[in-house]
């Protein structure tokens, strides 16, 4: 009798707990603002609940699809082509808060850059599997990867969205490094990235303003430094056990967008150090189990796929938490699985579905 494949239960449980916490915390963080702006405190609760239900259902289906299906070149190129076209099309959409990152469909926002991240991970995993022994070959490996990643990153930067593009490059870089990329190329890439980042900051007044306000937010407490200061107040006022669920004060029109990029500050204020630490532990568990799956994967494609999908979540979570705690300048990066936002939640759950399928085969390979 064939052995029944089993997914990593710890990875699944940590993901599910974050999604369930998301529905609760998005409501807590958004209720007052939603009622004031839209006349209903349940607006974002309903949206997040719908996306969560859809995402969990899709994850349950995808975790039963053999991950090697996604190796097919036709699927990978179709995903890349769709993502590129969507990224071009979104540049002609109506701006929201000065950026063009979302399509509005039936009252829901869809972000093409989320699809691009997933497509790049599949492409990178498939290419590295085929050219593992040529990972340092410029013509065979690095140039093709550089072109695809460069096109996607460039289109995302045009939105503009510096944070997401940086996360995409970091995730692909993690996959390349795990494949044995020479430290010489790592140093060149790091240096080039720093120079490019510095250039983008210098030529963009709003990015330069963010850097200056990050270094000294007290100099402009009601302007550029307002967001960071309000976030730190929220985190610091939570104490050990917090003010209690729904009891936060900074979300009451002090902390901008408390249900999206700064939802971790609301968690820290309402659930205290205990809630903030448990959230951090959940991400640490996902990262640990994801890399564990990569180490036990039965083939290179599964290993690189697991590294990329885990890195996608870990890098984004690290950046978001660092922003909320004032460790890096403010960027529009949501907290995976937790922040309000349907396309981000959906794509991350799709990625977890694929990762959980890899874990099924990885467990079997390890046991045998």
Q: Could you explain the architecture of this structure?
A:
This protein is mainly alpha-helical. It has one domain. It has 12 helices and 2 strands. Strand 1 and strand 2 form a beta hairpin. Helix 3 packs antiparallel against helix 4.
What topology emerges from the helices and strands here?
Elements: H1 9-38, H2 43-62, H3 73-90, E1 103-105, E2 108-110, H4 112-130, H5 138-157, H6 162-178, H7 183-203, H8 205-215, H9 226-237, H10 263-296, H11 300-324, H12 342-367
Antiparallel strand pairs: 1-2
Helix pairs in contact: 1-2, 1-10, 1-12, 2-12, 3-4, 3-5, 4-5, 4-6, 4-11, 4-12, 5-6, 6-11, 7-8, 9-10, 10-11, 10-12, 11-12
Give structural attributes:
single chain, 368 residues, 12 helices, globular
Strand content: under 5%
Query: How many beta strands in the DSSP annotation?
Result: 2
Structural class assignment? mainly alpha
Number of helices: 12
Helix-strand pattern = HHHEEHHHHHHHHH
Report the principal-axis shape: globular
Quick overview of this protein structure:
This protein is an all-alpha fold. The chain has helices at residues 9-38, 43-62, 73-90, 112-130, 138-157, 162-178, 183-203, 205-215, 226-237, 263-296, 300-324, 342-367, and strands at residues 103-105, 108-110.
